[in-house]
Each structure stands twice: as structure tokens, then as C-alpha cells.
Write a structure and sequence with these properties.
The structure is a homodimer of 358-residue chains.
Chain A: E1 7-10, H1 12-28, E2 32-33, H2 43-51, E3 57-59, H3 62-70, E4 75-81, H4 87-96, E5 98-103, H5 106-115, E6 120-127, E7 135-136, H6 140-147, E8 154-161, H7 172-190, E9 199-201, H8 204-209, E10 218-219, H9 229-234, E11 244-254, E12 259-263, H10 266-269, E13 274-275, E14 279-280, E15 282-287, E16 292-303, E17 307-311, E18 326-331, H11 334-340, E19 344-346
Parallel strand pairs in A: 1-19, 2-10, 3-4, 4-5, 5-6, 6-7, 6-8, 8-9, 9-10
Antiparallel strand pairs in A: 1-11, 11-12, 11-18, 12-17, 13-14, 15-16, 15-18, 16-17
């Protein structure tokens, strides 16, 4: 690898394996697979999905929908509450491709129906316990009212939920517990409909580990494409499934305090951290000929804007941490790190095209 | 303001006032003013500095040095440990403009001298207690050895320190205490030189509040151009001096739990937070005709990738928080927020040119 500044390295084989795993699981469960592309935001990685037959995707902003539209994706769900201030851009996009939007209030739906003139579909966001967005799953009256307002231009196309509180889970039982409680809320709701609605669902922890997707019509998870350190702690994946590592040059040696300093900081990693049990911002790996190898007890201890401080165990061989050496860091939260990094490539050096941030 | 998605708004008047304040202070103390441009990373804002006579700047990466070189800045200090892997790009830049690099080891200096053929200056990074980079101020032997290796191509040009531990301060006394201890370490060091070296110094807290810069030759602070919520807690500035606010659309109302959801999350704010006493990611303001006004007890409580949850006090007028309304958020850490935001404009709507991230 000819790298001289922080660069996101993608292990294409692992990413493709993660993609195949989730696609196969959806198929086995007879679910539509509509992966969320907010994690990679990449036309290159998107092609890996297309290669195995994926045609429907989710994104988290109109800007991201535009990006993938330009890269020939024509069935896109903007899985974020409809932003009425972007109705014009949305209307233009809906002229050209199939668009689903996400609705959670009468006000938003009324606005959508007044301002968007091209055929569009809407899904109702259901809160299954995460408490971020959505109508509470028990609020049948509001949900039914929104569901009944579809027409030929603005068509009701089902319910969507994101059990984001699985991110608080630590271990499979925890994930299953949160997932079951979310599903059971959906179940009670769905039973009230005369015709069972289409249900889109998809946090990475649940989709990775559970086998129980009764009532669910579609997987909408995203992080699984790369996974990350947080997902290993939750129990969604093993560390071997993590498909991204930041490559960062070592710029200063401070062996006296068991530390080295890298070119790589908050503007590359973001500032999400984990406690395992020490607070850290990433797990250190050594790059090998065809991947990377975990270095036990070596972690990214502290970050400021461009600086990162790596903690080294006392009796580790310091030669691999000398100035000019490139080390790898498995990110704590791959969605944020991938979002930040414009410089991305595969292990074999192929460039990864990435959406330009706005 | 015609804004429909997260946009960083810069109060030009306040930013120019902050710039003038620091420039005047440096002048009064008879110091060179070499502002750090890593906070704004903007050719537009850079012109505000040039307007009042600034000609020398600091940056935190070779990429940033290139950006400002292209915008006609010709005296640039890369205030980050010399990354030996970028020697080629550095050498090319040094052919065209005056470049200072930052050195903290024999290995880095030897490399610089072997590989960089165009005249360049180097400063020695001194650790005055922050513990990030630099040679400990008491390590006279190493410091003298590096200082003595200058030649006509690679010229020793002084010491540099960053008392970043002032960021742990809460209040003026705390800042002064950390600052004094840092200065006294430098003092002991400088006294050992036969000819007192040039000393570059500059964390925003110290430069904002202290009057004691004995031995210091140059201010190298950066954050002061915008300040932020963290700096108000440290005691570096008042909330009225904060010159940036994020403008974000409200996309969902959840008054029942005293919350609204904005389009604006970790990819816009980064994930730095403060505890005052509740954990939060930004202080909410209302935009007015010519600026913004603080809303007491309204804060950015939680963020995920694109979503932000705003906490509202129980008896606040909810009308100003309805769907489609744009609210402002004073960032916790303006350096990271400004780094993330490509969409930036002044209060009057003039676009702010920003370095494209790499």
C-alpha cells in the first residue's frame, strides 16, 4: 500500500461476504432486501450490491438519493422524516425514479400531498421503542388516519421501523430481547389492519443475529456492509467480519509513556468511543499482505483534530510503531468514519468512489 | 435565509471582531500574530485576516498548506509533527513559498534534512504539560541537539508549544494556572539558550484571557475566530462572541416528550459534547433579522448520523419549533463542525469558500 496520509481501507472480500450474508438471509426468510446505503455512501460499493441482484435501496437524505440516482439507482427510499423544505428537489427526483418517503405526522403528509406532483410513495414511521422518530406503535388512530390518505399520486406503501435501541445491547440475548419487544409492538399494530401492510425493518444488530422476522416484509439495515468495533461489542458480528480499517502514518514516538502519535484524529474518525473497559476510539491492527491482523491491547486512546494517540502495551515490539510506519485502526463507528473519509481504497489499491459531502 | 438543509452560518461581524481582538492583543504585547487556520479552513475567512495585515499562518496538514498556498498565502507553518511520508509534497511546496515544519525527534529531523532539498525552516515542538506531542521541556539535551543541527537549507527557527491542557480549565483562574505552569516550563528552557530562541505559542484559552506572555514571540491560536460552547465553559469567551451557528430544519415534532427532531446529526456536528450539567451537543438559538438569540434550556440532546433530538423546556412556545422551521445550534466544538460542513454562508447569505476535505 502506497499511503501517506489517513486513508480508509476496505477489505472488498469481507464487505462482499457481509453483503452476501445479509442478502442470503433475506432471501431465506423470503424478505425483500433493501440495504441502507448511508454507511458506505459509495457508487463503487453499491455496484457490489447490484452484482448480487439488489435493485432497491434506502438512503438518509435527499442529497444521498440524488447521488445514487446519478449512479443509476432508480428505486430509492429516503428513510428520514420528509423535510418539507426540500419538496422541490424531491418532486424533481420523483419525476425520474421511484421514490419512497418517510412520514410521521399529518402536517408532513399534507405538505407532501400539496407540493409533490409526481407519483411518490410514503411509508409511515413507527416508533417501536427507540424513541427517536415515528408514531408510537400503539397510536392506532393516528397511524390508520395517515395510512388512509393515500391516493394515486401519493400512495401509502407500508410501515417502517428502526429498532435503534438494539445498539444498547451487549450480547445476543440482549439483542433478541429488544428485537422481540419491537416485533411484538409491530405485531399488535399490524393485526389491526384489514389488509396486513408492507413492513420495512432494519437495524444491523437484529438483522445480523435474529431469525425471527414474522410480519416483516423487508430488511433495511446498512452498517453490516462494514460492521465496526461497536457491532462486535453489541454481538452483531465477530471482529473478523469488520471490513474497514483506517490506515494512518505514525508521526511521533513516545515509547517512554507507551504511546505513539498518528496522523489521524477527530476529523477522520469522528468522536464516537467505546469502553472495553478503557475508553478508546479504535482497535489497532497491523496490515499484512492480504488484510490485517489484530494487535491485542493496542488502541486509539485519545484524539484531537488531526492527532491520534495510540496506547501500546509495555512489552510489545516497538519496531512496528516507528515513525513513517502505517498502522491500521478498526473504527468504533464505521458509518461516521466512512462518511468523513474522502480518501478510500480497497486492500489492493483500487479507489473507492465516495459521495462528496455537502 | 433561504436554507433547506443543515448549513453553517457565520456571523461575519462577530468573526471579524474576534480576529481584530486577537490581532490587537498580539500587537499590544509586541507579538507576531500567526493565526491557526485549521478551524475555518476557508479562503473567504482567510481574507478577513489578510485585510487587517496578517501574512503568516499556521495549518495542521500538508493538504491544508496546499489549499492556502493556492489561495496566495506564502508563509505557512505546518503545526503538526513532520510526516516523513509526505516529504515529496512538502519539498514541492517549499520550492514555492516559505514553509516551517514541526519537529520533535532526531529521526524526523534527519529525514527532513535528507529528503527536503528546498530551503525550509523547522521549529522544535516542546511539550509544556499537555502530553500529546513534543519533547518534554526539561529535556534540554535533546532540544539543544535538534536546535544545533540547522543549516542554510534546513534552518532552525525556534520553539513551539501548545498548552492544550487549558481545555480542561473551567474559569479564568484555572486557565491562568495551566498557562503559568506551561510558561514557567518554557522559561526554564529558554534561559538555557545562549541566544533566546523564537517561541511560538497558542491555545485559544490562554491567548484569549491571559496578559502574561513573557518570552513568547508569536500567537498561534485558531479556535478564537469562531469560539464555541466549549470555550464559554472554559472561560475563554462569552456566548456573544460565538460567531457560528448551524442552521437546521425541524423535521418532526414530539411535543409529548418535549422534543423535536432536526435534520442535523453526527455527520454535521461531530460527536463532541459537554455536560452543563446535562450532556448536550449544542445550545439552541433562534435566528433573528441580524443574528441569533439564545433560547435558555433548549439544547441538542442526542444525535445519530443525520438525526438530532432537541430538548424543549415544558412551557416554551412550541410554534417556533414546528416542522419546516429553521433553528440554530451553537456548536460544542466549532473546529470539528466547521471541518464537517461544506455548506457554509454568512448571515447575509454570502457563500463561504471551504477547503474540500480529503
Amino acid at each position: 500500500m502506497k499511503i501517506n496520509r489517513p486513508t480508509l481501507i476496505i477489505d472488498e472480500k469481507k464487505a462482499r461476504r457481509n453483503i452476501a450474508f445479509m442478502a442470503d438471509k433475506a432471501k431465506k426468510l423470503n424478505l425483500i432486501f433493501r440495504p441502507h446505503f448511508k454507511t458506505h455512501q459509495s457508487a463503487t460499493v453499491a455496484r457490489w450490491f447490484r452484482k448480487i441482484g439488489v435493485k432497491q435501496i434506502a438512503v438518509s437524505s435527499l442529497a444521498m438519493a440524488h447521488y445514487f440516482y446519478k449512479h443509476n439507482w432508480d428505486d430509492i427510499h429516503i428513510a428520514f422524516p420528509y423535510n418539507i423544505l426540500e419538496c422541490q428537489g424531491l418532486n424533481e427526483l420523483a419525476k425520474n425514479i421511484k421514490i419512497k418517503v418517510s412520514i410521521e405526522s399529518q402536517e408532513a403528509l399534507s405538505h407532501l400531498k400539496s407540493y409533490v406532483k409526481n407519483p411518490i410513495q410514503y411509508m409511515i414511521i413507527i416508533d417501536v421503542g427507540y424513541g427517536r422518530t415515528g408514531i408510537d406503535a400503539s397510536n392506532w388512530k393516528s397511524i390508520l388516519s395517515l395510512a388512509n390518505q393515500g391516493n394515486s399520486t401519493c400512495q401509502f406503501s407500508g410501515l417502517m421501523a428502526h429498532a435503534g435501541h438494539t445498539y444498547d445491547a451487549r450480547g445476543l440475548n440482549d439483542i433478541e430481547k429488544t428485537h422481540s419487544s419491537s416485533l411484538s409492538k409491530l405485531e399488535t399494530l399490524v393485526e389491526k389492519f384489514v389488509n396486513p401492510p408492507f413492513v420495512s425493518y432494519g437495524d444491523t444488530p437484529s438483522c445480523s443475529v435474529s431469525e425471527n422476522f414474522n410480519l416483516i416484509s423487508e430488511f433495511r439495515c446498512g452498517n453490516f456492509v462494514y460492521y465496526d468495533v461497536t457491532q462486535t461489542l453489541i454481538g452483531s458480528c465477530t471482529v473478523d467480519q469488520i471490513a474497514v480499517a483506517m490506515a494512518c502514518p505514525i508521526v511521533a514516538e513516545h515509547y517512554d509513556r507507551n504511546e505513539v502519535v498518528i496522523y489521524g484524529g477527530a476529523i477522520h474518525f469522528s468522536k464516537d468511543f467505546v469502553m472495553t473497559p478503557y475508553k478508546h476510539f479504535g482497535q489497532i491492527v497491523n496490515f499484512t499482505n492480504n488484510g490485517w491482523k489484530i494487535l491485542e491491547d493496542v488502541y486509539l486512546k485519545k484524539i484531537s483534530q488531526e492527532h491520534g494517540i495510540i496506547h501500546l502495551p509495555k512489552n510489545i515490539d516497538k519496531n512496528q510503531f516507528s515513525i513513517g510506519h502505517i498502522i491500521g485502526i478498526l473504527p468504533v463507528h464505521s458509518c461516521l468514519t466512512a462518511d468523513l473519509m474522502m480518501g478510500q481504497q480497497t486492500l489492493s489499491g483500487l479507489p473507492i468512489e465516495k459521495m462528496i459531502r455537502i
